[in-house]
Amino acid sequence: MVTGYELSQLxxxxxxxxxxxxxxxxxxxxxxxxxxxxxxxxxxLHVAARAFWPAPVPFxxxxxxxxxxFAEVLEFxxxxxxxxxxxxxxxxxxxxxxxxxxxxxxxxxxxxxRLQTTTLLRTIGEHSFDAVFGGARRDEEKARAKExxxxxxxxxxxxxxxxxxxxxxxxxNGRHRRGEHIRVFPLSNWTELDVWTYIxxxxxxxxxxxxxxxxxxxxxxxxxxxDTEHAGPLDGERSYEATVRFRTVGDATCTGCVESRAAxxxxxxxxxxxxxxxxxxxxxxxxxxxEAGMEDRKKEGYF
Length: 303
Hints:
The protein is of the alpha/beta class and 303 residues long. Helices cover 34% and strands 16% of the residues.
């Protein structure tokens, strides 16, 4: 008789994520996984490949492309999905701008980040997806902390925090009518430290932006932004070279970096363990639009 068998915290989190992924595939007709090439979506895809091995991942991945992404991330995205043999779908914000479905912001601080909601909902509708995997975690931001693992969205793609369904004993309610869908968050209970511990233990490759490198940056509103073709210094702001890394990656116009010498997953682990601010709180300008900015966008259908 075997006694004292116990899973590590990381193994339990992985097992929970595997269970959620398999539950969705068993009960939904057309799931899709949101994949930006960022660390959380990379980990989610890695767990999905493990969950269904030796069979291929049984659903496509979707990237909502603002057109203002870091080139290194797009190159990484294309290579990873090709290696895994996964079908990649791209929802283009530029297509919605060209079609007049959204109006692009103008001005030196303009961002396409909020426009992603329209593109996401349009793409979900066009492909009739009924379950959408996202890499959001509860520790990232207070609105995301309200989410259940299965997050119900109505026929307009909107989220109502007052209509959250109970998930006692890890039992998930995926009931929905035609036109509605469920957002599913397999990494809900992970922390940034858990994600990096998993990346280090599994030797998961990430875009090079996540590790220390030299690049031109400028400071704005207490954040360091990369000096790129999509964002540059305004009058009174100065571009200079620094050694930085990104804690999260997204639209280049609103994703900041931090000064860092962390060049390996182990280095990043030590850095994250000492941090007292989440990656979104520290480096995402789009979360600073108001006290309830993320919750307001989620109610509209945002990630």
